[in-house]
Amino acid sequence: MKKIGVLTSGGDAPGMNAAIYGLVEEAETQGVEVVGFIDGYEGLIDGKAKALTPANVKPHIGIGGTFLGTARSERFKDSAVQQQVAERINEELDGLVVIGGDGSYQGALKLSELGVHTIAIPATIDNDISRTELTLGFKTAVRNVVETVDIMMQSAASHHHIYGIEVMGRRAGDLAEWTGKALAADGIISKTEDFSVSQVREAIEMSFAAGKSYQLFIIAEGAMSAAEFKRHIENETVYGIHDFVLGHIQRGGNPVAEDRMLGFDFGKEAFNRLSAGDTGLCLAVEAGEVVAQSIEDHRAFEDRRHLS
Ligand SMILES: Nc1ncnc2c1ncn2[C@@H]1O[C@H](COP(=O)(O)OP(=O)(O)O)[C@@H](O)[C@H]1O
Ligand SMILES: O=P(O)(O)OC[C@H]1O[C@](O)(COP(=O)(O)O)[C@@H](O)[C@@H]1O
C-alpha cells in the first residue's frame, strides 16, 4: 500500500479530526501517504484533495467539526458518477476511509462494490448507526446539550417556567434519552409513542407539588417538534410551555476526551484494515472494543431503536 485517501461526509461530528489523525499517524509509521478530500464526496468527485501528515492534522484534534469540510452530496448518489469516481480512485489510490453517518456508509458500500478498498468510520452526533455502542461525536453532543440546558434552567428556575426542549438525533432518540436522564428531566419524549398529554400534565403537577422550581421536558426531533409539544400541552391543559430548538450548538464544540480517543482508535484500525486488504467494512464499538463489521449488514438499521 502506497497511498490512501480519507474524507468526512454528512453531518460533522466532533472527533472526526481525531480519527483523521489516528489514520495519518498510523499510515506514517508504515510509510503510506494520505490525502484528504475536501467536502466529502464532493471533493472526491472533483478531485479536490490535500496531502495530510501528522504535523498538519495534529493542530485540529481538539477542535470540533471537520477541518477537511463535509457535505451532503446529491451528485454522488448518481451511479454514473460513482462509477467514474471509482475508476479514478482505483488508478490513484490503494484505499479510502469514509468518516460519516449511515448515509455516508451507503456511499462507501457503493465504492467498495466498484472495487475501491473502502473502510467506514461511524461519526454522527445521533448515535443512530446499528450495531455499534457508540458513534464519534455523540458523547460531545451529550455534553453540549447538558451544559447548555443547565444554563437555560437557571432562568427557568427563577421564573418557575416549564421548558420543552427539542434535541437532534434525526430518527433516533439516544441524544434525548441520555441528556434527559443527565438533566433529571421531568419527561423524556424520545419516541412518538412516549408522548401522552395526561402523562405530561401529571408530571408537571407532581413536580410543582414536590416544590421543584422548574419543569423540563426533553424531546427528540424525530418524535415531535418542541412547537408541537407546546401546542398539545397548551391546547389540552392549563399550563404554558416555553419551547426551544437547541439546533447546531449540539454539533459543534471541542470534542470530549472520549471522542478524541475513540477517533484515534478508529483511525488506526481503519488503516490496519486497509493494510490487511479488507474492504466493505465499517468499524464499531462492541463491548467497549473497536471491531469491524460488514457495511452491508447495516443497510436496514433494523436493530436500532429508530423512530418510525
Ligand atoms: N444511497 C446512497 N448511495 C450513495 N451515496 C449516498 C447514499 N446515501 C447517502 N449517500 C452519500 O452520503 C452523503 C451523506 O449522507 P447523509 O445521510 O447526508 O449524512 P450521514 O452520513 O451523516 O448520515 C450524502 O450526501 C450522499 O453523498
Ligand atoms: O445540519 P443539517 O444539514 O440541517 O442536518 C441536521 C441533521 O443533522 C444531524 O445533526 C446529524 O445527522 P447526520 O450525522 O446523520 O448527518 C441530525 O441530528 C439532524 O437531524
UniProtKB/TrEMBL annotation:
It comes from the Bacteria. One of its GO terms (molecular function) is monosaccharide binding. Its cofactor is Mg(2+). Its EC number is 2.7.1.11. It catalyses: beta-D-fructose 6-phosphate + ATP = beta-D-fructose 1,6-bisphosphate + ADP + H(+). It is found in: Cytoplasm. Residues 3-272 form the Phosphofructokinase domain. Pathway: Carbohydrate degradation; glycolysis; D-glyceraldehyde 3-phosphate and glycerone phosphate from D-glucose: step 3/4. Catalyzes the phosphorylation of D-fructose 6-phosphate to fructose 1,6-bisphosphate by ATP, the first committing step of glycolysis. NCBIfam families: PRK03202.1. Belongs to the phosphofructokinase type A (PFKA) family. This is 6-phosphofructokinase. It comes from Suicoccus acidiformans.
